[in-house]
Amino acid sequence: MANQVVLRSVPQSLSAKFVGSFAYLTVKDRLPTILTKVIDTIHRNKDKFFEEHGEEGVQAEKRAISLLSKLRNELQTDKPVLALTDNVVDTDMWNQYLQRQQALMDDNEPPSWFKSPWLYVECYMYRKIQESLHLNPPICDFDVFKEAKTKSFFESQQPIMAICTYLQELNKNMDDLSETQLLEHFLKLLQVSLWGNKCDLSISAGQDNSQKASPVDSLEDLKPFILVDDSNLVWSVLTNGKIPGGSSKLQGRVDIVLDNAGFELVTDLIFADFLVSSGLASKVCFHGKSMPWFVSDTTKEDFHWTIRQTLAANHKWMSKSGAQWQCYLKDGTWSYYDHSFWTLPHEFCDMAADAPDLYATLQKSDLIFFKGDLNYRKLTSDRDWGHTEPFEKALRGFQPASLCSLRTLKANVQVGLQPGQGENLTAQEPTWMTSGKYAVVQFSSPHREQ
Ligand SMILES: [Mg+2]
């Protein structure tokens, strides 16, 4: 009974069933385009599969493509979502979730691409891409998005050099900085990491989305586009609430739940380096994806590849940054985790019940950054909230520690705005929630007044 009361007070999930909505357009246009690109990528790597696995590799390529073509057809014709059959570590969780979705349908209709929640079916598509490879063992480790992620990294070399230089200059003078100067640099690097989130390949359906300009120089111009800016609350947590003045840094543990590889990941590493070298944090835990995900998301392989590439760069400050990051990983100052929950379709309010081990891990953190749009959608359950609903309400009890979303807006859910702010934006710029032009630094704490 209590459960029913709670359910009734939660808005509907965004879904392609609302014709004309952003969810509808995504499922109708963007997801099939991404599937077509995946099919093309696998096909273009036919020779590589032959070299590595002989005729068996070519047969695997054909079977994977046939499964993906079938998937694209099922998507476009709104067929039921089917149970997974690949029998890997998360298969049961996915199939149980399908049953939960079934229970939510009216008239016993099956869950389907255009009728079920958008968050669920979009995650499911990426998991099905993995299934098509898992079912064809010789090529099961192939990352269909690797080329795009690598390209994004190499095409962003200029800004990467610029921020590595900025970081190394800063590290040289770190001990001489006043509290006010430290705060200034903190805000800059927080914003570099925030705007790094613009570079998302799933939103451009894999099109080039790399960063060209020097990131630190453009921050001032971008400030008006930050719709919610709780940076001062984030700073307050990191300095134990005793700013300004005094040396009362928290020196605790910060977690960063990553979004995209390529340029964005470098901005996150730079920010994490600053947190440690300034003494604001003693430890940073990164959380990435355990499979290729939403085109550009960071996997373990991407994480280590990026650090190796930075170290190997023919640029003094880039290389020095990479060397420092290797040291942080070796001595345990930094660590990387890829819990399978991050690639499930669950709303984060389900984490405590469905992934209690991960929830317990996050409870040990002093501050968790959630990068990007998908994390924001999962934080807010991807529902049709009014723009003035408090962030805490949309979290629906998910509060393992103090947390902060660093997100450029690419999906139509946004809470915690001032009265009239959303309406004004809609009147001026109807696509403000999906263009990636606007951003939020949105904070919530278990101790914050509600
Ligand atoms: Mg992403």
Characteristics:
450 residues; alpha/beta; Transcription Elongation Factor S-II, Chain A; Rossmann fold; 7-stranded mixed beta sheet; 19 helices; 7 strands; 49% helix; disordered N terminus; binds magnesium ion
Describe this structure in words.
The chain has 450 residues and is α/β, with parallel strands linked by helices. The protein folds into 2 domains: 12-139, Transcription Elongation Factor S-II, Chain A, CATH 1.20.930; 154-444, Uncharacterised protein PF01937, DUF89, domain 3 (Rossmann fold, 3-Layer(aba) Sandwich). It is built from 19 helices and 7 strands. The chain has helices at 2-8, 22-44, 46-53, 55-76, 91-104, 118-134, 146-154, 157-172, 179-196, 219-222, 231-238, 263-277, 300-312, 316-330, 351-354, 356-363, 372-379, 391-395, 421-428, and strands at 226-229, 252-257, 281-287, 334-337, 367-371, 403-408, 439-444. A 7-stranded mixed β-sheet has the order 1-7-6-5-2-3-4. Strand 2, helix 12 (263-277) and strand 3 form a beta-alpha-beta unit. Helix 9 runs antiparallel to helix 12 (263-277). The two termini are 25 Å apart. The model is unreliable at 1-6 (pLDDT under 50). Magnesium ion (MG) binds next to helix 17.
